[in-house]
Amino acid sequence: EREREREMMMNGRKTPPEVGIQLPETKVAAAETGTMSGPLVSARPDRNVRRRRTDVIHVVLRLLCLLTSVTALSLMATAKEAATISIYGFTFPVYSKWSFSDSFEYLVGVSAAVVAHSVLQLFITASRLLRKSPAIPSRNHAWIIFAGDQAFAYAIMSAGSAASGVTNLNRTGIRHSPLPNFCKPLHSFCDRVAVSIAFTFFTWFLLAASAVLDVIWLSKC
């Protein structure tokens, strides 16, 4: 009887429920395939996407800088005009050409150097992108590009400023002197020079943007 009572008491006790742990399907599949997912693994594709985006911006800036510098160079190098001017009732023939001004010659020389720099950097960057390689392979390369962009940006800015002073003098003349406004008879020449200077400052802006992009790349690498 006592054994029956013990059996009845044991049968009356509640057995604890079984607890099972089931891994999510993604983790199980990752464990079976030997791959893992998470912030450490997904960071690499995001970094590659950002790198590609930066490389594309580099190419666009180089291409725009090449176009603006070529435009500034071609407009200034072809700026010339002949006309007549009247001073105290006397008419004199005048002829104006970009090579008559040292400031304009300086702008042409700097613009030509920027064109060469842009062509070289565009060729290097495009060739690396076609090979699916980073446009800037190392910090040393980035520092060289940054130094070049900075140097040419300062040079093109100084050239544009010097040419602007000469152009402003041609448009206003000199007070208390018979020197007239040369841009009235030479309006075509002055207009070409003004547009060339505008593209020169636009080139400076693009070079400065490239330098800032180089700094951002150096700060993140």
From TrEMBL:
Keywords from the UniProt entry: Cell membrane, Glycoprotein, Membrane, Transmembrane, Transmembrane helix
Topology within the bilayer: Multi-pass membrane protein
This protein's record includes keyword Transmembrane: yes
Domain of life of the organism encoding this protein: Eukaryota
Tell where it localizes: Cell membrane
**Subunit architecture:** Homodimer and heterodimers.
Report what the protein is called. CASP-like protein
Q: Which organism is it from?
A: Davidia involucrata
For this protein's source organism, the top of the classification is: Eukaryota, Viridiplantae, Streptophyta, Embryophyta, Tracheophyta
